[in-house]
Amino acid sequence: MSRVSATRALENALRRVGFRHVAGVDEVGRGCLAGPVTAGAVILDPDRHIPGLADSKVVPPDERDDLYEEIVRHALAWTVASSDPRQIDRINIHHASLDAMRRAVLALAPVPDVVLVDAFRIPDLPMEQRGIVKGDRRCAAIAAASIVAKVTRDREMVALHQQDPRYGFARHKGYATAEHLAAVAQYGYSEVHRRSFRASTVFDTMA
Hints:
Blueprint: H1 9-16, E1 22-28, E2 37-43, H2 61-74, E3 77-83, H3 85-91, H4 93-106, E4 114-118, E5 128-132, H5 135-138, H6 140-163, H7 169-172, H8 178-187, H9 200-206
Parallel strand pairs: 1-4, 4-5
Antiparallel strand pairs: 1-2, 2-3
């Protein structure tokens, strides 16, 4: 995926029609076999431009860390919220992702007037929202939220690796790499694996 810098055009347009605090929200870890799904929510300061914001998936790790520090230092507000593997197994990954995003938005202070969401609409939000297709590539606030969520979740996966290095979480962050699948085949599922994410069909193709 090529890197496209996100812009503040949509946020600025919303401010011009009267919205004051425009939040972006995004989640990461949706397709993983292990670990939480983590949502970030960010209200950027319109007077503090942060250059280089883009979808977290196309930003190199060192630059992501630097952008994370810029975001948390200069944003008007930022929060993260996660749904753990047990919740994911209980209510499914889609609903767990939406719940994490909802909780992240509701924890923001100041409370946003409008929320920009990458693709989805979030149920039960008490404020205006807009679902933006490819929002993490187009909208600076959503890109910032994706970076905050990604760095937060990656650091948690590194901590889980330090507790149990058998699965290589620090390297693949819970995604279904060949290394990860081989470790699951050898050791079985850990406490942080999602039981509802079955990898049997992947194992069959590797046999």
